């Protein structure tokens, strides 16, 4: 809240917008962990949902699909970035997907936060998701920047949300799309589910994989 107030009221500049994006990503990281821990589940509402995500959807798709069936067709991440970023390790990449899209992908991720919000809001309207107060925070933030700073406010909030999307989604995608995590021979040689899950994740320590 302090960071948001700073970029909204006290120091409305690009540097503040980017700084708030980085802080939001740290907050989202805690929200990710809160979803995994039942004792802290409600704290995810003031972290992930405050950013524009949905912790309800996150708990269902992330914990019950993604972590249970990582990098398999039952993983909801499996095709969500097709045809831009192919996460299926068994599919060949065409020239554009292998040579061009890695450089274009950040532009797509820049829009990821808003795309996620629009998709979730549409699911609420259709009655497929629970109605909660949290989805209103993202449009309220955008409206506040517009009301106080006009077009410059829209530039700032776009940079802020875009930088959040690039940082947050890049880290998430890196975890399961490294060379080691996509090694199907190594995964198939695992003797149980736990070992296969370890192989499907990246160890971010240098030279640890």
Automatic annotation (TrEMBL):
Q: Which keywords label this protein?
A: Membrane, Transmembrane, Transmembrane helix
The name on file for this protein is: Fatty acid desaturase domain-containing protein
Coiled-coil ranges from the UniProt annotation: none
Residue spans crossing the bilayer? 12-35, 100-119, 154-174
Position of the signal peptide: none
| Family annotation (PANTHER family) | CYTOCHROME B5-RELATED PROTEIN-RELATED
Check the record and name the InterPro entries matching this protein. Answer: Cytochrome_b5-related
